[in-house]
């Protein structure tokens, strides 16, 4: 059995007996306990940080709280966070008009270069940065949001007040690494795997409403779907 695998197995057993916020033994102590080099322990700890099992706190390491699990369904981030006992929040990064690129224009049924509203926000859970969301909406239809909408609140709730009911969406999930800008906004490193979600939502009249491109920290959040035959 490779040493790294044995160390990881032993660390899993240690973490199973600890609770959220409990300190993890130091690299030195673990290296002595497992009779391996500190670099072997260090790599195993890095893997656990990436997975969200542990997190750095000061000069030590503690057990992380469980990941927030978001359902893959047509609901707002706010609704999903509240359903899991978390306090949602948003930080506005930018909100302005931009010309639609070819892909966005096609999904929204617009001409290339036609103006769209671009809303970019950092998503929070209990004050912790876990996601970066970019929403694109047809400007001609939703210009009124500039006068009526608070961007730190749920966009879907605001759309409902305008009489817009979302009916269906197409969503794609991929794994990516953060750019330096994205890492700075999410307060993580560029080596941390992110989950990228791309969604196009349609209302009950069959009209495209939004294109959303979201990045989520893989160490803070997971997604699940209920499947039926």
Descriptive notes:
- The protein is of the alpha+beta class and 229 residues long.
- It folds into two domains: 3-63, Arc Repressor Mutant, subunit A (Orthogonal Bundle), CATH 1.10.10; 68-224, Chorismate lyase-like (Chorismate lyase), CATH 3.40.1410.
- The chain contains nine helices and ten strands.
- The protein has helices at residues 3-16, 27-34, 38-51, 77-83, 102-108, 139-142, 145-148, 155-161, 180-186, and strands spanning 54-57, 60-63, 68-71, 88-99, 115-125, 128-138, 166-177, 193-203, 208-217, 221-224.
- A hairpin with a 4-residue loop joins strand 8 (193-203) and strand 9.
- The chain is elongated and about 65 Å long.
Number of strands: 10
Q: What is the overall pLDDT average? A: 90
Poorly predicted regions are none
The number of domains is 2
Q: Hey, roughly how much beta strand do the residues contain?
A: 35-45%
Helix-residue proportion: 25-40%
CATH class of the largest domain: Alpha Beta
Element-by-element helix/strand order: HHHEEEHEHEEHHHEHEEE
Quaternary assembly: single chain
- Indicate the CATH architecture of the largest domain: 3-Layer(aba) Sandwich
Taking the alpha carbons of the first and last residues, their distance comes to 41 Å
CATH superfamily of the largest domain: Chorismate lyase-like
CATH topology of the largest domain: Chorismate lyase
Major sheet, described briefly? 6 strands, antiparallel
Structural class: alpha+beta
Tally of separate helices:
9
Q: Strand order within the widest sheet?
A: 4-5-6-9-8-7
- Globally, the shape reads elongated
Radius of gyration: 21 Å
């Amino acid at each position: 059995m490779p040493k790294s695998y044995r160390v990881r197995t032993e660390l899993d057993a240690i973490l199973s007996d600890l609770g959220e916020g409990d300190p993890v033994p130091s690299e030195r102590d673990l290296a002595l306990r497992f009779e391996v080099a500190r670099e072997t322990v260090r790599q195993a700890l890095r893997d656990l940080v990436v997975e969200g099992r542990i997190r750095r706190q000061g000069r030590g390491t503690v057990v992380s709280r469980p990941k927030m699990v978001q359902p893959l369904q047509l609901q707002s981030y706010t609704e999903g966070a509240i359903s899991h006992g978390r306090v949602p929040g948003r930080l506005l990064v930018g909100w302005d008009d931009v010309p639609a690129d070819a892909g966005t224009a096609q999904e929204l049924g617009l001409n290339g270069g036609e103006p769209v509203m671009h809303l970019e926000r950092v998503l929070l859970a209990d004050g912790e940065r876990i996601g970066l969301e970019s929403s694109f909406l047809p400007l001609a239809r939703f210009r009124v949001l500039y006068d009526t909408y608070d961007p730190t609140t749920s966009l879907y709730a605001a759309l409902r007040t305008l009489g817009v009911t979302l009916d269906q969406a197409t969503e794609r999930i991929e794994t990516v690494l953060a750019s330096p800008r994205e890492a700075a906004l999410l307060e993580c490193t560029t080596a941390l795997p992110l989950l990228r979600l791309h969604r196009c939502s349609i209302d009950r009249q069959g009209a495209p409403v939004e294109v959303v491109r979201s990045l989520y920290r893989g160490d803070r959040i997971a997604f699940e779907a209920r499947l039926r035959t």
